[in-house]
Amino acid sequence: MNSFKEVFEQYQWDEIKARLEKVTLSEVRNSLRKTNRTLDDFLNLLSPAASQELELMANITRSLTQKRFGKTIQLYAPLYLSNECQNICTYCGFSLDNNLRRKTLSDTELMIEASVLKSMGVKHVLLVSGEANKIVGVPYFQNAVRLLKPHFSNISIEVQPLEEAEYRLLHEEGVHSVLVYQETYHQEVYKEYHPKGKKSNFHFRLETPDRIGRAGIHKMGLGVLLGLEDWRVDSFFNALHIDYLQKQYWKSKFSVSFPRLRPAEGIIEPNFIMEDKDLLQLICAYRIWNEDLEISISTRENENFRNHIIALGATTMSAGSKTNPGGYAVDKESLEQFETSDERSMEEIKDIIKKSGYDPVMKDWDSVYSGA
User: Fold this and answer.
1) What does the pLDDT look like over 97-129, one tens digit per residue?
2) What is the number of helices (H) and of strands (E) in the chain?
């Protein structure tokens, strides 16, 4: 296979939706009894029928997560570089058609924000920006990574899709992992959510993880924006993507995130409401299917859900997050990408993790290990 596109085109959205609706409780239980599970088992565990076995799924998930990752939760925080964006996306506060003040951090402002994160004990930082190649392109990211590398053990990025050579450049600078979300794998409606900008190119975005993998990035993170389309179908395609990538780029590690559509300036209401129990089922399905997959939970989720997911599959959590450039100190009123739900501090989250019998981990990777 030259890219995931070849795999993707072998599947149809409506066919997967129909298969999910036909899954029986007997098929779900058969998948739960297995020790080695396939994508067909993942589909069974995503199905409406599987919701009847949620308690059992949660128990299996807890056991598998502890076996593979121990009782640890890796903590990180995002650092938003810019809310400039050349895309129109109907669900995002950074969308080009939102007539609001834009902000891109200068070198001095970047280091002020970094100093706040360091004071919080953050060692793993995620750099995030809107998609505006001319303002925040690869040279900007290279400079940011060079400035921050002496101060953080691990630098990840969540920015616009880049070319393979550009990912190689950032990898050489010290970028450890790249997060990129397809948002939805429903190709027929994708353009409706992304009417303008480079992001409207469905296939260019679809093949981004291939370019990341060929560039030798240590870890990549995938996910869909839960609330745009049917979460069960979208999540099957996301797992299909991860399955392909793990076989194709077996030296890389993989994580999955679960961003639910949150309030933001000028965005649409969710088309599909996903309840907490649905998200729990989805997390359990991923863990039972794939024991090695890292599972990341952001501050989009509410306090109660995050408290309980510590012992039910999460391996990575953000804390104390600000989703606007300068939000920690420089420009607290700048445009945010979305509202956070869990606004507790890093220290509060660490305490909750400890009270749950788990260890909060601030550093489990350093660039010196990779020779970067």
Assistant:
1) 877 788 999 999 999 999 999 999 999 999 999
2) 15, 9
**What phi and psi, each to the nearest 5 degrees, are found at residue 113?**
-60, -40
As a whole number of angstroms, the distance between CA 85 and CA 131 comes to 5
- Report whether 193 contacts 183 (CB < 8 A): yes
Model pLDDT for residues 172-218, shown as the tens digit of each residue: 999 999 999 999 999 999 999 999 999 999 999 999 999 999 999 99
Average pLDDT over all residues of the chain: 92
Amino acid 263: pLDDT? 55
Q: Are strands 294-297 and 253-257 parallel, antiparallel or unpaired?
A: parallel
Residues 6+ apart with CB under 8 A from 143: 107
| Residue pair 202/226 in contact by the 8 Å Cβ criterion | no
Exposed/middle/buried for residue 79 (C-beta within 10 Å: 0-12, 13-18, 19+): buried
Tell me which H or E stretch contains 67.
Answer: helix 54-69
Task: Kindly state the tokens that stand for 60.
Answer: 């299996």
**pTM confidence score:** 0.94
Tokens of 313: 């599959």
Residue 124: HSE in the Cβ half-sphere, 13 Å Cα cutoff: 20
Q: Show the beta-strand stretches assigned E in 235-297.
A: 253-257, 294-297
